[in-house]
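Lab meeting notes turned into a lecture example. A postdoc, R.K., suggested we walk through two folding results consecutively so the class can see how the record format repeats. The first protein's sequence and structure tokens come next.
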Amino acid sequence: MSTVKPYNQTGKKEEVEQMFDQIAHSYDFLNHFFSLGIDIIWRKRAIKELKKYAPKKVLDVATGTADFAIQSVKSNLQADEIIGVDISEGMLEVGRKKIKEKGIDHIIQLRRGDSEQLPFEEKTFDAYTVAFGVRNFENLELGMSDMLRVLKTGGVGVVLEFSKPTVFPIKQLFRFYFRFIMPTVGKWISKDSRAYTYLPESVDAFPSGNAFLEVMKKVGYSNTRMIRLAGGIATIYIGEK
């Protein structure tokens, strides 16, 4: 996996943190705008898979503004505790406000944390989720391995991530949209000239499909599988400990 960074000035981890701090104010709007709300349907589909394991304590990695954690509560996941971690304090601030406004801060807690060095003991969580975050890891294998570390035996990891569609005309339309429409609108609204150019570049560089399942297997996941969504625009990956 080649390393793609937002600004190409320092380390990827530092640049991803800087980028999300800068676009936190407009992130939720742009996220739903660009996907036409389909990202909400994708999250619900991922949560449907997670429900099969009936987890009580869940870790949401790269939680951002806590959309996945909040949707889990809305979708009646029935977890007793959801802890969201992210390296961007700017995104977490937005997420905390949303959680408090919805009155679910007794279920969801957010804290700053690094996916490659999670601040939790081994075998702490029944499940973890990551939505559109693993491609931002500086070291993918290290991040996947550390998330596995904090899972209890029999626990599950559910990853939702963009992938590269291969079917005509979805492939061509997706590529045009990602390469031209998204960066232009994203720059105008977020005021960050690189953030929404980095997005398609990071998707291109990410080992999607079977290649990502191989990464999961390599670091120790079992019963790995994937579910393609919207013609391959996004994929749900599932692995157990």
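The second example is placed directly after the first for contrast:
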Amino acid sequence: MPTGELCRFASSDGLELSGFLASPASQASDVALVHAHGLAGNFYENSFIDVLADYLTGLGLSFLTFNNRGHDYIADVVEYGPDAAYAQSRRMGGAYELFGECEHDIAGAIAFCRSKGSKAIILQGHSNGAAKVAYYASRHADPDVIGLVLLSPSDDMALQRQNLGNRYETVLKEARKRVKEGRGWELMPRGSFGYPMSAATYVDSFDSGAALGLFNLAETDRNSFPELNRISLPVLLALGTVGEGYLGTAEDYQTAIRTQMSSAKGFEGIILEGAPHNYRGHDEALSRGICDWTTRLLGEIAR
């Protein structure tokens, strides 16, 4: 069984983040897999986290799962001032986060793992978290980051258009109006999105050119994906087939992502038939797939 500790560390822009670091019981590890949760999620909500922690530490790896600034619907996050002894709360959570700020959270998690002795990092994200780690990897050529695991990256733009239908432009126009009037932190009316979401976050997520669109492979709002093409890391993509966050079939979505990630130094895909978006009931199969890929990756690096 792994040993573990609740931990706190700072994002690169001074927010206090918390999580859980699982470590091998019998040896120190110089490789860590860092997991980023999905929209309004948290570091412990998905049951595959428990299973994956056991599998990875059994391989001799560390596993960090952490809350980013968008954890839960609405959350107060400690923000440090210039004086380390000074801190105040900042209202955040999924309702208020801005997607591009994920860079600060992921950078902080990587720095924390380095402080614990990790020399190599695998970034993993689930759902919206998969978009975050892909976005980070597209913008940072960190030599210590050796691989990327994408668990059910969501095509949020296409899903939102499908869910709202003819109301899509009306809701977006209302969000823009509130932002322009200085009311960006007001929550959007009920029915605008599946979760509570501020007007500023809504515009940041769904306006033309939004960074969140890097997995808009249904091409409802864009038809080029330079972020994905810039990623040169080895990539593992996992998808379920039930209630997933994409339009069309798992096979077509996987192919579209593989095509756009043409610069990746290796691309493998896992489709878990019957698995839902959170992989409940398929935790073992998902964890085995991640660990098998990780073992091959580390073996190739060691050659």
